[in-house]
TrEMBL record:
Transmembrane segments annotated in the record for this chain: 48-68, 89-111
InterPro entries, A to Z: Emc6 (IPR008504), EMC6-like (IPR029008)
Similarity field: Belongs to the EMC6 family.
Pfam family, one: EMC6
Main subcellular location: endoplasmic reticulum
One Gene Ontology term from the biological process aspect of the record: autophagosome assembly
A single GO cellular-component term on record: EMC complex
Protein's name according to its UniProt entry: ER membrane protein complex subunit 6
PANTHER family referenced in this protein's UniProt entry, alphabetically: ER MEMBRANE PROTEIN COMPLEX SUBUNIT 6
Membrane topology reported for the UniProt record: Multi-pass membrane protein
Cell location: Endoplasmic reticulum membrane
Keywords: Endoplasmic reticulum, Membrane, Transmembrane, Transmembrane helix
Entry keyword Hydrolase: no
Amino acid sequence: MARMADTSELYKYFEPTVQHNALALSNIHTLTSWGVGTAAGILGLTGWAGFAFFLASWAVISGLVLAVKCEGRPSVYFKSSLMDVAGTPLLNTLLSYVLVWTLMYALVYIYD
């Protein structure tokens, strides 16, 4: 006879709450990528320096989300905890960052 799964594990996450947390996290990442992209464009960063700036700011933002919003316990708010906070939205955020970075760089330095 098959053993029943632990009921506390079955009801550990309430799906609407997890989706709300994921949406809030997505908004944080998108808005900060726009701000960081704007800063990189205005500062005139080009090439690898711009990508290094993005990665450094990504680490700071993810650390702040983990420390402040998740209170150091991301597994309480997300199913795959650290991967949901720092890993999964990285590519989408990078694309937004590059878009705003190049736009701001062009507005400040190319169209003088």
